[in-house]
Amino acid sequence: MFLRSTSPRSLSRSPGRSPSRSPGRSPARRLDETDEQQLERLYKPVFVMKPTACKCSEGQTARFDLKVVGRPMPDTYWFHNGETHIKGIFIEEDGTQSLIIVPAMPHDSGEWTVVAQNRAGRSSISVTLTVDGKTSLSSGDGEAAGEHRGA
């Protein structure tokens, strides 16, 4: 039975009046509500905490954190520059999912895309990872080494 009000006064009156007030409409209404409930059970994935761009030096740890909701709970897939990604550590704690890349290397730089998918739909977010090479850290003149690296 569908009840909108939870006040004690309306609850005490509704059981005696509901069946006699609209007996012809009640089964159809229940069917409509059942259909709505069936539709409401599926929710497209939504990122409630989005991963952010990351910048680190070679050998350090890069980490992307996210939280996604949906019904059923969506599966997540990571892509690096459009390719399926399998390198890294995937963890989930208290609903927060993380991709941890350790050690991060310059070839890990680029666009990282996470796709969340369930039966209701699909959502994705892309972020950038920039990993600076060690040459800029080991050289006495970091700026010159950084410029040389790009040449």
Identify the notable features of this structure and list them briefly.
alpha+beta, 5-stranded mixed beta sheet, 2 domains, 4-stranded antiparallel beta sheet, disordered N terminus, Immunoglobulin-like, 151 residues
Summarize this, please?
The chain has helices at residues 8-21, 26-40, 135-138, 142-150, and strands spanning 43-49, 54-57, 62-71, 75-80, 83-84, 89-93, 96-101, 110-118, 121-132.
Characterization of the model:
14% of the residues are buried. The chain has a five-stranded mixed β-sheet. The N terminus and C terminus are likely disordered. With 151 residues, the protein is α+β, with helices and mostly antiparallel strands. It contains four helices and nine strands. The chain has two domains: 33 residues, no CATH class; 108 residues, Immunoglobulin-like. A hairpin with a 2-residue loop joins strand 8 and strand 9.
Named CATH architecture of the largest domain: Sandwich
Task: Determine the strand fraction and express it as a percent band.
Answer: 35-45%
For the biggest β-sheet, the strand order reads: 2-9-8-4-5
Shape category: elongated
Helix content: 25-40%
Low-confidence stretches: 1-20, 136-151
What structural class do you assign from the helix and strand content? alpha+beta
How many helices? The count is 4
Note the run of SSEs as H and E.
Answer: HHEEEEEEEEEHH
Q: Provide the CATH topology of the largest domain.
A: Immunoglobulin-like
Q: Can you say what the CATH homologous superfamily of the largest domain is? A: Immunoglobulins
Number of strands: 9
InterPro entries: Ig-like_dom, Ig-like_dom_sf, Ig-like_fold, Ig_I-set
Biased composition (Low complexity): 1-26
Organism: Xiphophorus couchianus (Monterrey platyfish)
Region (Disordered): 1-35
